[in-house]
Amino acid sequence: GTTLGTAAARSGRYFGTAISASKLGDPAYTTIAGREFDMVTPENEMKLDATEPRQGQFVFTAADRIFDWAVQNGKRVRGHTLVWHAAQPSWLQSLTGSALRQGMIDHINGVMAHYKGKIYAWDVVNEAFSDSTGGRRDSNFQRTGDDWIEVAFRTARAADPAARLCYNDYNIENWSWAKTQGVYTMVKDFKQRGVPIDCVGFQAHFNSLTPYSADFRTTLRNFAALGVDVQITELDIQGAPATTYAAVTADCLAVPRCAGITVWGVRDQDSWRSGDTPLLFSGNDRKPAYDAVLDTL
Ligand code: XIL
């Protein structure tokens, strides 16, 4: 029968979900996830604190549980995420300067070596821009120097030339937002100078404070025109209005370089914002938003 994954595949796109390793033992969860989606993002298990809890000692137990489940069920995997200001192990938080820069490089190399040739796309850097100004977010990585993002991308390209390399962020969906312009300027500069970047991930966590706007399509088009793929990487929408889910889906379909859509969890009860009931399933049931997405794909 038709599923989100098979429907998206008709236009050469994927439809993915975040997966949590702790839920792979829940048959109601794996039944829906296994049936509907053809791309998987580990929700937390590939983050820095999970994969390198002590410096130089890499742990892939939970990440591999998701990776193996995905591959055994015919799905591809998005790696999330190599460098981020959050979910940092304490050893990393205690480093500064060149030691932190080297720690970042070693982390990228360690994680990417384990999955070399097996990951569709990596979120190399996550959320490096400030919410209000359009400039960089203050973080320990930022304090090692402005070039930390391009160093991360060059390191990642050398570590696994087969993976698409993405910059991923939230509140960059509306073209009028300063943060969107800040990221756009960086990606344009990277493309002009030959810094290896293949894709931009738009998290797309829409709520009443940062609502969906129809100019998301303009944003996707403008980034794609820079010569990168665009991906909707963590979609959830407060209240899950069917019309908004349909509009986001149509926006991706309207942009040839929009490679696919990932929702940030399977059922409302799995959401990091479960109180917002922002996803496509409630318990075992498809919500109206599900039908709207499927009809649009
Ligand atoms: C969230 C997870 O969903 C939660 O389980 C965790 O407690 C915190 O992180 N942007 C991202 C994701 O890039 O990694 C975040 O995921 C949501 C916001």
Automatic annotation (TrEMBL):
It comes from the Bacteria. Keywords: Carbohydrate metabolism, Glycosidase, Hydrolase, Polysaccharide degradation, Signal, Xylan degradation. The keyword GTP-binding does not apply. It is an enzyme of class 3 (hydrolase). It catalyses: Endohydrolysis of (1->4)-beta-D-xylosidic linkages in xylans. One of its GO terms (molecular function) is endo-1,4-beta-xylanase activity. The keyword Signal applies. Residues 1-296 form the GH10 domain. The active site is at E234 (nucleophile). GO terms for biological process: xylan catabolic process. Its EC number is 3.2.1.8. Belongs to the glycosyl hydrolase 10 (cellulase F) family. This is Beta-xylanase. The lineage of its organism: Bacteria, Bacillati, Actinomycetota, Actinomycetes, Streptosporangiales. The chain holds residues 39 to 335 of 439 of the full protein.
